[in-house]
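Mods, move this if it's the wrong board.
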Amino acid sequence: MNNVMDTRLVEIYSDAVRDDRIQLVADILRSGGLAVIPTETVYGLAANAYDSDAVAAIFAAKGRPQDNPLIVHIADMDMLGDIVSEVPDSARRLAEAYWPGPLTMIMRRGDKIPASVSAGLDTVAVRMPSNPIARQIIRHCGCPLAAPSANLSGSPSPTTAEYAIADMMGRVDCIVMSDDCEIGVESTVVLLADGQARLLRPGGITLEQLEAVIGPVAVDSAVLSSQLTGRVSSPGMKYKHYAPKTKVIMVDGDCEQYAGYVCRSAQPAAAVCFEEDVPLLGQLPHVAYGRQGDDRSQAHGIFTALRRADQLGAEVIYAHAPSRSGVGLAVYNRLLRAAAFEVVTL
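Not the wrong board. Structure tokens:
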């Protein structure tokens, strides 16, 4: 991206929401501009989902591959009919249970959504964020917003305004400075367009929660393995994602095994670890990303930990692998891609 934009910083915090500032951001988006907005998952880089030029600007600002679909964000169910051509019964039941919230559903794309939003696919990914500031901005826009995470493509997603500014300053028209994101990893993505529900990306709504509402949900092979060829239906499936500049290796073992392995490293190393690992690491530089048995705390802390570890001057970051159950599956999925699928099992 060659042209540096004059990025406006707009403060809108949950305890001091101002309609004039909401309207300012909405006006920028409605006129074809780009805005970074808060959601409960991560900060998003938003544009009018009906405006193909604005959508193209998202890809340019992020350096995002054109074959990586975007997620369309809505404020209420009334918007859904203009985005999708049909709403399966499974989608209605999941929406009733988990919208607004960190759940994205992929359905058949309606005619109003440009093909570029969905990377040329006949499907579209949709979610209704629970962050009230995000929904107010969408309502004031009067149109749905296409919004991937507000980071440079491939780097850790921003969960604070500070990190969004670090990546997007000079690349967008405005950045909403708001509260830290509650959940900390991107939304769950489930495909509902082909008759069989399929989990494409784990997130804050767990596989178990999905199945409690609609029955069996298949888990796509790309959740826990590399998918390097072919078209993908969801963000976060195909490319190395979420990675700091420093090389990341995921280490799977108990606390003693993990600490012993990391401390024996021949390279200058840093640890992205559980709080329980810290007493075992001695003087090794480290950033804890959550408690070992608390997958929600891990999700909340993982992207911040990766960014902070990148500043420690190490040659390699060893990340302690979480459990693959509950929200831990989402954290494992993100670390797997940050590590470019390099895992040491002890």
